[in-house]
């Protein structure tokens, strides 16, 4: 945000995890907003509705400067969940792929079609793009960065990106009036065609594992080509290639019926990496209901690394539903979980401390909360949970607390309240 009348200060870590300060002059932001206004020609009686924060470059450009130049009103109530949407007849929707994926997942439909849905922050899946085209008048995917501002755009899932406005690319460098430096080195690897370009991946997501250079973007693309995997996030952890995976319905069915080890065996036998230059295979897996995201709508790599550093077996997640005030997760705690070992060996049960641990973990990801509970109250263990038993974890959130229950159709196993 403004440091003085001339400068805006932004912070970015890209994919490297190292926080970087980026300074932008008001003039460059205004030039970008003017060109956006000239290109998209949005009427001044349009409302801007957003899921993104104006503290970051994308939000600052598309929810502050751009509508300001157009003379448009901005709804200051940021949208966090689909049910937060207000009934505007004439509006544009500024969002990110992580949020837009939820609209497709829950078959959401606007009461009135937005004039434009803008998406930026990560690649928008082509299938999600096509779904959005059916519930809006137009979809525009923006390609850019905090340092460079808007670089390119595409207006169809069947199109390649085109460079925006006065942006020029030469030998891996960007020249543009939307930043103050003469040129910026682009961290992304671009592939060019007659009608535009595609973003192949980030150069700063190449890691060295077992003395071999691995592109994490390429590894994710290969995993995502499986019919069992909806999306994935790869990382280097303890010199191993690790994958956090969200399964498709077919993948969840195999996990429920055959277990984690058999699912991993099936994924490995598919030889997803066979025709690639990736010789290192995934050694550690986490199967999540969704990839956690940060406030910018980008995959939260730090949170995923935290999940991998936790030496405890995660439950199988066979189904899930998340809204702003509630969430439900259908879970199975497999018999081979490490917390069952040595805990009533002849009659294993799910320890209470493990139940509380996973309640906290699911609260963090369901409601995007980074918290240490002040206290846990009204804790009640009513019935035991056995290995491989199907249970539902139900969460109900208020401003100051989250109530939880482990239950099935017949009974409540345990309940309590986490004070935020």
| Largest β sheet strand count, sense and barrel closure | 7 strands, mixed
Question: In CATH terms, what is the fold-level topology of the largest domain?
Answer: Rossmann fold
CATH class of the largest domain: Alpha Beta
Terminal Cα separation, in Å?
A: 29 Å
Tell me, what's the shape? globular
Write down the Rg. 23 Å
| Total beta strands | 25
Name the poorly predicted regions.
Answer: none
As a percent range, the share of helical residues equals 10-25%
Q: How many discrete structural domains?
A: 3
Counted by DSSP, the helix tally is 9
CATH homologous superfamily classification of the largest domain = ANL, N-terminal domain
How confident overall, as mean pLDDT?
A: 90
Describe the model.
It is globular and about 70 Å long. A hairpin with a 7-residue loop joins strand 8 and strand 9. Helix 1 crosses helix 2 and helix 6 crosses helix 7. The longest helix has 15 residues. The strands form 7 sheets. A 7-stranded mixed β-sheet has the order 4-3-5-6-7-8-9, with helices on both faces. The chain has a 6-stranded antiparallel β-sheet with strand order 20-21-23-24-25-22. It is of the alpha+beta class and 420 residues long. The chain contains 9 helices and 25 strands. Helix content is 24%, strand content 33%. The chain folds into 3 domains: 194 residues, Rossmann fold (3-Layer(aba) Sandwich); 98 residues, ANL, C-terminal domain (GMP Synthetase, Chain A, domain 3, 2-Layer Sandwich); 111 residues, Thiol Ester Dehydrase, Chain A (Roll).
